[in-house]
Amino acid sequence: MENAIQSNTDLKPKKRRSQFGEIWKRFKRNPLAIVGLVLIVLMFLMAALADVIAPGDGVFAGYNLQDWNRIRQFPSAEHWFGTDDIGRDVFSRVVHGSRISLQVGFVVIIIGITVGIPLGAIAGYYKGILDNVIMRFIDILLAVPNILLAIAIAAALGPGITNVMIAVGIGAIPIYARTVRAQVLAVKEQEFVEAARAAGANDFRIIRRHILPNCMAPVIVEASMGMAGAIMAAAGLSFIGLGAQAPTPEWGAMLADGRLRMLAGYWHLTLFPGLMIALIIFALNMMGDGLRDALDPKLRSGGFSKKRFRRIQLAKAAAQNNSGEGQ
Amino acid sequence: MHIFILKRLLMMIPVLLGVVFIMFVISQLTPGDPVLAILGEVATPEAVAALREQMGLDQPWLMQFFNYVVGVVQLDFGTSWQSGRPVFTEIFARFPNTMQLAGMGVAFALLMGIPLGIVSAVKQYSIFDTGATFVGLIGVSIPNFWLGMMMIMFFTVTLGWLPPTGFTEPIQWIMPTIAIGTNSAAIIMRMTRSSMLECIRQDYVRTARAKGQIERKVIFRHALKNALIPVTTTAGLSFGFLLGGAVLTETIFAIPGLGAFMVSAFFNRDWPVAIGGVLLIAVSFSFVNLFVDILYAFIDPRIRSQYR
Amino acid sequence: MTKRLLLLLSMLIIAVLVVAACGNGAADAPADVDQPAQQQEQPEQPDEPVVEPPADGTGRTHLNIVSANLAVSMDPHESNDSASAQQNKQMFSTLLFQCYDTFGPLPALAVAWDTPDAQTVNIELRQGVTFHNGDPLTAADVQFSLERAAASAEMGIIIGMLDSVTIHDDYNLTLHLEDNFAPILAHLAHPGTSIIPMNHVLAVGDDAFAQEPVGTGPFAFDNLVIGDRLELVRNDNYWGNLPQVESITWRQVPDPSTRLIEVSAGTADVAVDIAPADIPTAQADPNVNLITRQNLALNDWISLNTSRPPLDDIRVRQAIDYALDTEAIMRTAWGELGSPARGPISDIVWGFSPQAVREVNLDRARELLAEAGHADGFDLEIWWNTGNIQRMQVAEMVQFALTPLGINVEVHGMEWPTILELTAVTDPALTEHDMFIIGWVSVTADADYGLFPVFHSDNFGGAGNRAFWANAEVDELLLQGRSSVDPVERMEIYDRVQAIVAYEVPVIPIRQGMTAFAISPDLNGFTIAPQGHHSYAPVWFD
Amino acid sequence: MANELYRGKLLNISDLSIHFFIEEGTVHAVNGLNIALAPGETIGLVGETGAGKTTTALGIMRLVQSPPGMVVEGKIEFEGRDLLEISEAEMRKVRGSKISMIFQDPMTSLNPTIPVRDQIAEVVLLHENVSAQQALFKAEEMLEKVGIRKERSREYPHQFSGGMRQRVGIAIALACNPALLISDEPTTALDVTIQAQVLELMKDLKVEFNTAMIMITHDLGIVAEICDKVAIMYAGSVVETADKYELFKNPKHPYTIGLFNSLPDIEKDEDRLVPIKGLMPDPMNLPPGCPFHPRCDRAMPQCSEIVPENTEVADGHVVRCLLYEAEHNKEKGV
Fold first, then answer.
1. Phi, psi of C434, deg, nearest 5
2. Which residues of A touch D49 (CB under 8 A)?
């Protein structure tokens, strides 16, 4: 009988494909996650089709077409989101802005991951002095609130969207380093790593082939949430003037410019770009929640079917009533 | 416990030293001459040279770093290049506002987040839970600076209820507190909810129920105390997040705080103020984290015994 | 030649008219720009702009001011930002006062002065003046103050030409300048030459003095909450007319829209500097009295780096000027706040001469570019300082407007100190910039102040000539202009300089500055000073 | 009919079914379970992991997580009352005082943030009309009774070893002298030597307090040690129940026999154990007919169609298997 129990857990190593299928199956069940995914896809479509939606080229791109005789117009049929201070179509700028934000999100995550994962893996795997040095460095980065660190770095690098991505990316390193380190510490001691070591695999191979793949789930979740955070942080930096170079239609910079017109009643200059920032972050967070639930083995059978529960509950109540009447 | 605190305090020193060092490196890498920032559009080479010497910028930067650290040890943070006043004076004139703002933000976040999180967890799958989860997601997603702007637009421009800026009257605290605290409130709500959900499934909660304990006490006496442990961490981290977030909130609501001041210090290359400010924020953040760890010990006896 | 004569004549007439404006009704009005070297008669009526004195004192006696910044330093010699100048103006007095209209000198702490030559100024001090701490004002304080200011890096440009001060007795002294310097009297009215109490400053030290300043101004320092507010109280022993207002609270409100709202809501009486976007709002608001006045700034021009190709070619610069509709650009970015520039200095500055502005002509621009061998266009950068949104818009508009010429402009926002540093190198070969946007205030209202630093080739880089434009004739003329004591000659000199500048286009002027204040409707007697050093001594409430 | 067979004096569970409604489907954790127990009697509830033992125990306590869990049908009569019919407030009076429970994992079933003394006092305060002081005194008394010095009573759970913690759990369970004690694998998480101590303690205290007990376990050795009766559970229902000696001597159900065969026996010098082939069925997808038939050596064609009824093969020995149903019916001449 103990054997029977044992055999139950022997099934653990599953095929990769079916694993993804499983995750997707679980992800799919979460309606909020699907809404998030759909929003992100729409966002990508908008970015991809920006030139079609707001056509033009270079300086004369739709988002940059100036008409000094139509400045600060409120939304109309011609200009859905109105026009800005120098007569550009806000809708076109908002549409083109999706490119910047998505780009920022991805690049920041890539910086965070490509630096953070190796640091975390090395720190976790080797321990000792290397671990100490890396983690103290991480501590230093963590001792300064992220946005302040980003401001300092962005100030040093100068304004510009590339520099913002670097600045926010550096701020993102500690999260990944810490997540991976914790995972590595946990995974390292497991049997299959011991087995690989016994089989003569070198450290690099062990880390790459055996340890890291098992650390990926929290990193993926962290990344989808981190992308939202990165977009928010970058918009914040743009807002205080460290962001994208004019005339790039960056949402945070548009907000900053529009703020000066806010009390004069030009609400359309701040409403739409801000809404877009909130929307993309919202979508990423929803997707991140869904991913976390789908990837978390603890939560695998967490969901409860309200429909069937209620149906049985009602049927039971009805049956009781019937029997009560029968008496 | 004392030894633990002492150890933590000692560990702060290299980290803070590292912070100062990194800030010095950044100050060296940053383009923009602080001397010219002071002198403005027209600066004769003689004036530039004189001021540079006066500010000690003619020395090599490692020497400047060394001098700075020696000064800091004696609680001398130098003088602001812009105003000529001691950095200490400049910073502490504004720091209380920032602390108050961040403190009120954390208080708002806790007062909103914890109760909502508890109810949401206890009534899992209810309409309230679904609604709170959704609102929580929105709260996490809304950029605080935009929220602040929209509140000004609505409560000041449209309704005329609240003053747009300032930080002296309590009525002026409302919008900044909500603006800065909403993200954290949502984060804490989500954290409380998931932590509570985990705790109310714990064996010891079942034990409490098996004792015949009433549900309210099961939740508050048994589940909540344990659920609050991760929430405490989140709240501590939020505080750091809010100290940073104050930069934007202070700008929007024109609060004379350290955040907005430091941004202008960065822009003006007033490095003594910028470095001093970052150092102070790092120190307060470290102390908040220490405080959180001490708080842990009060909540969780397991951790208390680790601290020996 | 007739044109030149006509010009001179018209200038003289204007000069006479403005003398009358500052005459204050007195026949013995102080002479002005015509005769800077002449012995002055001292009128009994001292100080401040000409206002009707209040009928009675029934109004409020506390004044609330909101402005973007508080003084960077309350040491008048250690700061040259406008917030410091504005606040220090209330606490300190200068030897002279400069008329808001004619910009001629009026007596202040000095009751009489004469300039026997362009290198010497004799001063007779007002008697019985005391500092806020009770110390009497003497010649020693003046000597101490001026020498201290001259040694300061911040104030070098204002009074750095001072060589020495000779004290004759407690109330008479002579200033000796290093070189001939005709506009010296205007400089002695700048807040950077404020007189401070020698004994007190020496006793408490510079730092303590800056924390708790002591002067002879109409208001005395009371309290400072750093980053938040400055509180002043009336100086009851003020040497001029006693102010009606008994105290001032000066708060920092960085956002211009908010300052307007504060006045509209009655929580502030004076909002310093209203943003262009808010001008229409302020005009429409019955609770706000919007007052505007052209100031001495030529706030915004595009500086072209003439030391680097392709902008080293005069034809390219002219082509760019032909392509830019500077008036439309100015109106789009600033709206009502300011007026289109007509030259490199504001047209109210003494010495301004109007030059023909190039009408937009893209064909001519293309021709010029073709002549210069750039028919296919080229790449350029334009820099603007982050935080100044109007300049960003100018940069964007320039980029947009130059594209049809095939000029590919990259807009580059940088922090102010970075731009200052990158454009401050003295060797033109080391410059990296093409175009950037900057401005300059002819705070002394004399063309010398506006033109000399910006266009003399000795001043390459940080000293002001960030276009790295060298023109031997202009160099010569500018030196003549500051040493000559003959106003007619000087007028001619500056006319010629401005003509050359307009032809060679080292800068493309965009906007003449305008100061806009929102004040509460029951506040009277406030006048905007074009120099930027407004005085609150003469104001009163209904 | 089944009810009559199992009429006990203290507890009588009949046709209890508990299902969990999760998104993937309905988990049939307990299906038509019948158990009866007399006062002071001990029954061993034996089965593999996932057989529904713990769910049954929680069902008796009415502590099944709901949602997603729900008692779909059945009765739990305790001292003459159906526990499923009484109000939650009344049920709370039962929990901890009349029925208490010892949980499987002593590491997690004590609240880590409350001193053990207070955790015992809590249950005393709830059910006995005493002051806080008296409750604490009683708690220390209970601690002494389970072999923990009262000097340690102010310590926190993490300061105790696993065995000691389970002693605390026992103290909590017995503090109010319950009529029924449910022990959910109380020794599984403990070292073998500690297991024996704890079992010994439980045996002693059971006698002292004259408590009826449901001992949930998968260890037949423990059953042999302390139980009077045994109920073998498979896939949510009891497949065989009998007096301990009867069952050990004369197991009837193929599953029970399989269980015995998979145990090592020192007396018979066997080389190999004989495990039951296959796995427990997925409770979301139980096979039709007898749930055991896919693994059964003696399965007949009809086993996959007919759900077997309870069959009393000997006095108090009830089996749920078509093999015996047919036989029994023949004997009875039905």
1. -105, -65
2. 5
